[in-house]
C-alpha cells in the first residue's frame, strides 16, 4: 500500500507547465492482481440480443411479456399473426402464422428488420428456421435493401413439411456488401401452394461469421473489438424474473427467455455456456456472479428464505466444475463498489483505497464504474457533444491509477456498461457503440484508455519517488517477471507537462523505450463512426540511469514501456 498524505488537487484550473522526474524502485512493492482490468457485461442497451450475440433477427421466438409482431412485416400480401395455439415447445410458446389469401400465385412470405436494420456485409450467413404446415417446394431466403430494393443475397432451399410436426431447416448463403443498415431478411415461398391456407414458422435465425466459428456464437467483429469481459444480468424485476442459469443452457428451442431488466425481452440464446465459451475463446478468466436475493422491482429475499437459491448456486457450480462434492460456497469476503461519477468525483477518489485495512481473505471488487456526466451535471450521450469527453476519460484514468496502486487490495475492477446498440440505449454512455451499418463499431475515448491500461500490466507494483506531488499528474509503476517496466501517468490539467522516467537500479534494459499517449481538448469526444481521439505511439531514446523524457499534453494519459535489451 502506498499512502498519499498530499492534498489531491482538482486541477482544471492549473495552467502552468513544469517538468517532473519519476524514479522507479526495483525492490519491494506489492503483488498486483492479475484480474484488475476487466469489463462488466450486462444485457442492457441491446448489447446481448442485437449486440454481441451473432443472431441478427429480432423477436425470433416471441419471448418476453408482449412481443407481438415486432420486427416482422408481410411480403406479397400475406397476413401475419402471433399464434399462441401452435407452439414449437413448452419453452417457445408462440409461432408466426403466415396466412396466404386465396387465389395467390406469386412468391409470398415475411421479412424481419432485425435490430435497427439487418447488418449486410460481404460474407457467409448461416440460417436456421422451423416450419409447420403442408408444403413441398422451394423456400427462398434473401437479404434485401428495405428502401433500395437491392438484393444482396438470394438462396433457394427445397423444403418438405407437414401439419403434423415441425420441420427444422438449416442452410447458408453468401451476401454482397450493403452500403447502409436499411436492410431486411426475407423468407419467401410459393404462394400458389398455400393459397387459402397458412404456414407456421418459429426460431428464424441468421448469423454472420461468429467469433472462433462457434455455433450460436458471438459476432466475430464485436468479439475482435473487445478485450476483456465480466458478467452481470442477474437481478430481474422480481424473484421469478431473475436470470435462471439452467434455463439458458441446452437447445435453443428449450430456452424460454424472459422479460429482461431493461424494457426488452432476453432470448437467452446468449446463455451460460455461450458466456463461458466467449471467455475461453478470448483467454479470459470468467467471474461467476450468483443471485443475492435482490430484485430491481423492489423484492428482497433474505435469511432462511434464501436456502433454495443457495442450493441453486451450488448446483450451478457443480454443473460448471463437474463435481458432486460441491456442498458449500467458496470462502472469503469481497466488497462490491460501484462508481458513476463526474470528472471531479473520480479525481477526488484517487486515494480512496490508500488507507484501507489489509485483512486476509478480504478484497475489493469495483464492479461498475464510469464517468457519466460533466462537472456541471450534463448527462453524457453518444448523440450530443458531451459524448465520453476527453476530460472524463482522463479522470477515469486517474481513478484507475489509484486502483492499480492498491491492487493488492482491489482484486478486480470492471468498466460498465460495455456495449450499446446506437438508438436502442437505456443507459448511456457506454464503452463501445454498435450499429447495423457497415463498420459498425465505435470505441469511446474511455475504450482506448481501458485498452492502454489493460495491455500494460505488471506483476508487481513498484514505489516511485517523484519531485512533484500528485495533481495535476498522477502515476503508478509496475514490472513483470520477464523484465518489462511500465509507468502510467495521467495529466488532469490544462497545460502540457514534461516527464522523465528513470529506473536507476535496473540492468539489461534497452536504450529504446516506447510511450503511448492519448490526449485532446477537454470537451473533445468520439462520436458514432467518427473516432477523433485514440493513442499515438512514439519511440524514446535514453537509458535506465539517465531516463527517458516525453511530454504529456493537457488532459492526456501516457503509458511508458521499457523492455529488456
Automatic annotation (TrEMBL):
It is an enzyme of class 3 (hydrolase). Residues 367-556 form the Alpha-L-arabinofuranosidase C-terminal domain. GO terms for molecular function: alpha-L-arabinofuranosidase activity. The keyword Transferase does not apply. Pathway: Glycan metabolism; L-arabinan degradation. Coiled coil: none annotated. Its EC number is 3.2.1.55. InterPro entries: Alpha-L-AF_C, ASD1_cat, GH, Glycosyl_Hydrolase_51. It catalyses: Hydrolysis of terminal non-reducing alpha-L-arabinofuranoside residues in alpha-L-arabinosides. GO terms for biological process: arabinan catabolic process; L-arabinose metabolic process. Residues 1-19 form the signal peptide. Keywords: Glycoprotein, Hydrolase, Signal. Belongs to the glycosyl hydrolase 51 family. PANTHER family: ALPHA-L-ARABINOFURANOSIDASE 1 (PTHR31776). This is non-reducing end alpha-L-arabinofuranosidase.
Amino acid at each position: 500500500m502506498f499512502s498519499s498524505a498530499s492534498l489531491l488537487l482538482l486541477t482544471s484550473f492549473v495552467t502552468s507547465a513544469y517538468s517532473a522526474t519519476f524514479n522507479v524502485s526495483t525492490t519491494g512493492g506489492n503483488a498486483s492482481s492479475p484480474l484488475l482490468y476487466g469489463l462488466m457485461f450486462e444485457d442492457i442497451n441491446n448489447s446481448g440480443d442485437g449486440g454481441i450475440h451473432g443472431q441478427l433477427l429480432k423477436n425470433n421466438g416471441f419471448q418476453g411479456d408482449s412481443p407481438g409482431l415486432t420486427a416482422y412485416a408481410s411480403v406479397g400480401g400475406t397476413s401475419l399473426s402471433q399464434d399462441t395455439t401452435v407452439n414449437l415447445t413448452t419453452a417457445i410458446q408462440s409461432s408466426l402464422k403466415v396466412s396466404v389469401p386465396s387465389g395467390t400465385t406469386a412468391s409470398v412470405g415475411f421479412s424481419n428488420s432485425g435490430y435497427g436494420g439487418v447488418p449486410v456485409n460481404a460474407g457467409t450467413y448461416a440460417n436456421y428456421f422451423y416450419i409447420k404446415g403442408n408444403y413441398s417446394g422451394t423456400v427462398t431466403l434473401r437479404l434485401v435493401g428495405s428502401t433500395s430494393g437491392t438484393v444482396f443475397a438470394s438462396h433457394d432451399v427445397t423444403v418438405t413439411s407437414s401439419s403434423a410436426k415441425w420441420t427444422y431447416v438449416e442452410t447458408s448463403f453468401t451476401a454482397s456488401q450493403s452500403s447502409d443498415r436499411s436492410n431486411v431478411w426475407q423468407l419467401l415461398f410459393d404462394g400458389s401452394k398455400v393459397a387459402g391456407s397458412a404456414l407456421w414458422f418459429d426460431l428464424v435465425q441468421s448469423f454472420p461469421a461468429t467469433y472462433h466459428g462457434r455455433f450460436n456464437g458471438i459476432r466475430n467483429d464485436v468479439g475482435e473489438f473487445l478485450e476483456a469481459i465480466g458478467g452481470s444480468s442477474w437481478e430481474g424485476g422480481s424473484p421469478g424474473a431473475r436470470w435462471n442459469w439452467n434455463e439458458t443452457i441446452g437447445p435453443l428451442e428449450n430456452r424460454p427467455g424472459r422479460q429482461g431488466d431493461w424494457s426488452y425481452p432476453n432470448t437467452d440464446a446468449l446463455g451460460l455456456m455461450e458466456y463461458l465459451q466467449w471467455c475461453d475463446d478470448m483467454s479470459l478468466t470468467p467471474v461467476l456472479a450468483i443471485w443475492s436475493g435482490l430484485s430491481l422491482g423492489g423484492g428482497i429475499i433474505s435469511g432462511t428464505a434464501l436456502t433454495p437459491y443457495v442450493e441453486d448456486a451450488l448446483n450451478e457450480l457443480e454443473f460448471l466444475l463437474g463435481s458432486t462434492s460441491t456442498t458449500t460456497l467458496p470462502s472469503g469476503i469481497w466488497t462490491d463498489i460501484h462508481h458513476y461519477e463526474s470528472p471531479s468525483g473520480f479525481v477526488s477518489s484517487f486515494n480512496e483505497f490508500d488507507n484501507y485495512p489489509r485483512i486476509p481473505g478480504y478484497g475489493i471488487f469495483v464492479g461498475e464504474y464510469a464517468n457519466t456526466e460533466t462537472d456541471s451535471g450534463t448527462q453524457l450521450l453518444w448523440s450530443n457533444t458531451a459524448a465520453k469527453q476527453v476530460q472524463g476519460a482522463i479522470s477515469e484514468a486517474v481513478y484507475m491509477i489509484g486502483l492499480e496502486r492498491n491492487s493488492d487490495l482491489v482484486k478486480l475492477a470492471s468498466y460498465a456498461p460495455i456495449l450499446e446498440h446506437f438508438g436502442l440505449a437505456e443507459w448511456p454512455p457506454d464503452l463501445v457503440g454498435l450499429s447495423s451499418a457497415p463498420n459498425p463499431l465505435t470505441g469511446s475515448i474511455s475504450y482506448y484508455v481501458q485498452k492502454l491500461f489493460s495491455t500494460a500490466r505488471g506483476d508487481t507494483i513498484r514505489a516511485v519517488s517523484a519531485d512533484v506531488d500528485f495533481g495535476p499528474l498522477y502515476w503508478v509503476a509496475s514490472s513483470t517477471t520477464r523484465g518489462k517496466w511500465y509507468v502510467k501517468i495521467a495529466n488532469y490539467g490544462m497545460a502540457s507537462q514534461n516527464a522523465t522516467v528513470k529506473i536507476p537500479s535496473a540492468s539489461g534494459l534497452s536504450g529504446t523505450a516506447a510511450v503511448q499517449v492519448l490526449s485532446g481538448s477537454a470537451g473533445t469526444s468520439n462520436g458514432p463512426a467518427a473516432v477523433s481521439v485514440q493513442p499515438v505511439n512514439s519511440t524514446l531514446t535514453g537509458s535506465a540511469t539517465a531516463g527517458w523524457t516525453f511530454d504529456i499534453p493537457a488532459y492526456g494519459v501516457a503509458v511508458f514501456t521499457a523492455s529488456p535489451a
